[in-house]
Amino acid sequence: MHRRVRGLSIHLFETVQMLQEGPPSAHGMAEGLGRVVITRDRFARSWGLGDRKTPTAHTPALVLLDGDQDVSANIAPFKSSRSGDIPAILKLQSRLPLSPPDFTEISPSYEVSIGNVLPPSLDEADAGEVAGTSNLLPVSWQRLKHDDTLMDAELFPDIVVLVDALQLTSQPGKLVEAISVLKRRFPGALLWTPGIGGPDNLAVLTWFGVDLFDMARSRQASAAGVLLSVGGPRYTVDSMNESSDMDSQLSQWVLAIAETRAALEQGTLRALADKQSLNSPKLVEHLRRHDTLVAGMKGILTSHVDRKRVFNCYSQSSQSDPIIAEWENYISTDYRAPNDLDKVLILLPCSAKKPYRLSKSHGRFIRAIGTSACHEVIVTSPLGLVPRDLEEIWPAAHYDIPVTGDWSSDEVLKIKRMLTALLANHSYKRIINHSGMDLSFVDIETIDTRQGQSAGAFDVLQVLTDAVKTAVSDFSLSRRRGEQINIDNFSSVARKHMNNDHWLEGVKVRGKPPRWKIEEGGTQLAQWSIDRSGFSLSKAVILKLAQHKSLPEVHINSGVSWKGDIFHQIVESFDSSIKAGQDLLVMQDGEVIGLARAFAPAWEWAGTPGRLAKSHQRI
C-alpha cells in the first residue's frame, strides 16, 4: 500500500519515480479503446483512434454533450452525458467502432461515479465520496492530492477526465500543474478537460496535452449572441451576414481542429499556441506557467529533429520556451570548449542562414580570422551563445527569428549571464569582440573590432584579421588540422547529446564532407548524418558505447526475443532522461544487445501504446 502524501508535487514525484523503476506488466493494460500516437511534440499528441493501422478518428477531437447538434464522428468520436444524482454518474460512449480486436461494433462505452468534488481552494479538505476507478477515470484537484488509488501501478485508464478543470482555470498555476501531473502519470490515456476548450484556445490546450474537448463554451457564446472564433470571442458582423448560431460555432471548431492537427503534424504547434495565447491574458499566464514547469522536467524535450524542422521564434513568449532554457543551462553549466581552445575567444554576430558557417557573412568572418586556433562563439537571440562546434545541432541550426538589430533587455541579460558563465568555466586570456555587444561588464582583456560599424565592412574585417594575428602571436597559438577540428566538433556534439565523448578517443575522421566517417583501426564506428544533425552509429561501436556508458539505457525483459520496435510491454526499466530522437543502448540480463532510436521521450515510456523506439543495430 502506498502511504498518503500531502502536496501534489510530492505525490507526483513519488508516482513518476515508482513507474520509472520499471513499467507494470501488460496485465493491467486497459483494452477498451484502440489508440496509437500518430504525431507528438512534448505533451501534445495526435492520437489515431481505433485500429492503429487504419485509424477511424484522430485527436484533438470533440465530445458531444447532451443537447449538442449532430457532428461528424471523425470530429466528435465520443458523446457524453451526466446524471443529476449525487454523486453524479458520468457516461461516455464511442460513436465509432474503436475497440480491439475486431473494430466492428460501435464501442467502447464507459460509466463511472464522479464522486464529491469540492472547490480546488479547499484542497486540504476530504471530499468524502471518492470517485470511481475504471477505464474512464474522473480526477479532481483533491483526488490528485488525497486518493492513493491513483498510485496503483496496474491502473491504465483509456480516458482521464479532469472534472474540475473549469474551476482550476481561476487558480494560478493549478490547471497546468494538474494537466502535467496527469500526462506523466497516465501517458497512455486521452485527457479531457470539460468546459474550458474552444476554437480560441484549442492549440494552447493541445500543447499542454489535452486531447478531447466539448462545445460547452460555444453554447454559452451562442446564447449570448457571441461567436467563439479561432481569433477569440467576438460579436458577429452584420455586413458579413454572420451568425452566432451553433452551425457557425461548429464551423469555427472544425477550422481550429484542422489548424491544430496540421500544426502538430508539421512541428509548428508551439508557434500556433504562441499566437493563440494572445487571445486572452489568462492564456498567456497559463502558457508561461506551463513553460516554467516543463523547463524543470527531464525526458520531455527532443534531441534530434529532421533537418527541415524549423524552430520559430517570432514572438516574445518564445523566449521562455523550455528548449531555450535547456540550451542556456547547458552552455552555462556543462559546456566545455574543445581541448586547448580556451585561450582566445572570438565573439561573432549571428546570421539568418543556418548553420552559420554556410552564410555569406560568416564565410567572410572565417576568411578574415584565418586560423582555427581561436574559439569562435556566435552571439544570437534567442539562444544567447552558440559555440561554433555546436552550430550544426538542434536547435542551433534550426531556429528562425526576425532580425532587426535591436536587443531587448531580456536578451541582453541572457547573453550577459551566459557569457559570464562561459568565462568562469574556461581560461580565456583575451576576447576579440566582433559581435557589436557591449562587453564592459567583463574583466578580461577585450578588443572591440567593430567600433560601432558594420561587421562585414572591409575595413572592419581587416581590423578583425589584425586582432587575430596579434593574439595568435601573443599566446603562441597553433592551428588545428582539419581532422582535429572534426574530432573536436564531434566530441562537443557527443558531450551535448550523449552521456560523454569517451567513445571518440583514438578515432580517425575519414571521407568527404558533409557525411564524415568516424573510424577506429579501419573499422567504421559512425557516420555524421546531416539529415538528423547527429551520428548514425554502426554495430561495431555498440560494445564501446556500453563500456563507457555513453548512451541512456533501456532494459527489456528477460526471455523476450527482441526483433524490432520496442513497446512498453517488453520494457523492464528505462533511463528517465530519454529524449525523442535519441540513440539508446538496449540491455537484457545485464548485457548490451543492440541500439535503438527513441520515438517517444521518457515520460511516455511507462504506458503509452504503440512504438516507443525502433531497432537501429543489433549484436
What does this structure look like?
The chain is of the alpha/beta class. The N terminus is likely disordered. It is globular and about 85 Å long. The longest helix has 21 residues. The strands form eight sheets. A five-stranded mixed beta sheet has the order 7-6-5-4-11, with no helix packed on it. It starts with 7 loop residues before the first helix and ends with a strand. It has three domains: 270 residues, Queuine tRNA-ribosyltransferase-like (TIM Barrel, Alpha-Beta Barrel); 140 residues, Rossmann fold, CATH 3.40.50; 137 residues, Sulfate adenylyltransferase, CATH 3.10.400.20. It contains 15 helices and 29 strands.
What topology emerges from the helices and strands here?
Elements: H1 8-20, E1 35-41, E2 44-49, E3 57-58, E4 61-64, E5 78-82, E6 89-94, E7 109-113, E8 136-139, H2 141-146, E9 159-162, H3 165-168, H4 174-185, E10 190-192, H5 202-208, E11 212-213, H6 216-223, E12 226-229, E13 232-235, H7 246-266, H8 269-277, H9 281-295, E14 311-312, H10 322-334, E15 344-349, H11 360-369, E16 375-380, E17 384-387, E18 399-400, H12 409-424, E19 430-433, E20 445-448, H13 458-474, H14 482-497, E21 508-510, E22 517-520, E23 523-529, E24 534-537, H15 542-547, E25 553-556, E26 571-574, E27 583-588, E28 591-598, E29 613-618
Parallel strand pairs: 4-5, 4-11, 8-9, 9-10, 14-18, 15-16, 15-19, 19-20, 25-27
Antiparallel strand pairs: 1-2, 2-3, 5-6, 6-7, 12-13, 16-17, 21-22, 22-23, 23-24, 25-26, 27-28, 28-29
Helix pairs in contact: 1-4, 4-9, 5-8, 7-8, 8-9, 9-10, 10-12, 11-13
